[in-house]
Input
Amino acid sequence: MVSRSIPVGRHCSLFTVHYPLSPVHYPLSTAGSARLARFSFRFLGSGTSAGVPIIGCDCPVCTSTDPRDNRMRSSLYVTLGDKALIIDTGPDFRMQCLRFKVPRIDAVFLTHLHADHIFGFDDIRRYNTLQNNQVIHCYCGHDTLEGMRRIFPYITEKPNTQGLFRPMISFVEVSAPFEALGAKLTPLPVLHGNVATYGLRIDYAGKSLAYIPDVHEFPEPTLDLMHGLDVLILNMLRDKPHPTHLTRERAIAYATQIGAQRTWFTHFSHIMPHADLEKILPPSMAPAYDGLSVTLSRGCLK
Ligand SMILES: [Zn+2]
Ligand SMILES: [Zn+2]
Ligand SMILES: [Zn+2]
Output
């Protein structure tokens, strides 16, 4: 693993970024209490709904040998002290847990009901087992919760048969800031087609990050909830306009307006090779890739 600190200001570094060297050998920030005592996050996936490569596409991105151009569906794993939150459980969730050796999950936040964000949810059940039958809280908005009950009825309905291996979930509908896992979590309502969608702001140990993988427009009150961010993680789909996602140009414009100290973009289509993309973004902004892990250091804020 290669680690690098990104300089912020003259006297300190705010972030330590861990770069996996290959798509197979992913060192994990999971073992050992020293690591668990931090506020960190890892991209489990950074791709759009189809993933990258896209089935049947032979464009330069989809045929790239750079592992950073291989993107599973978007998901973020956030470590908060000795607890862990996962944001979205898409169709690649199981493979992401195996690939990145995700050790535990104490809570789930679902941004919205699109398939690329929820269709791996059933595999949460393994963490119930690993964590001594701990019931796992799942936080989401009203429409998402209604949809989850419809799509996964066996999770919320009482089983007829005992001994079945199914997720043990406590769904919690949220629409305003709430406390969980020792952090303040703020749902961020955004426009994303006609599907009710949230991003999430996390304030923990004096640091903050906001994760918005799917958005095409921010209402003004939501922008007001995003002041003073250390980290922004924002949707960037492609260059051509899209009805429900941000183009590269609009993603950069929003990131500039929001003004986080550091921005990573995610939820990419086969927009352009990662290596080219990182060269043309402004200095405080970078493309994410699967496996990228970032620790927000302590005691180093201006
Ligand atoms: Zn999506
Ligand atoms: Zn392609
Ligand atoms: Zn979506």
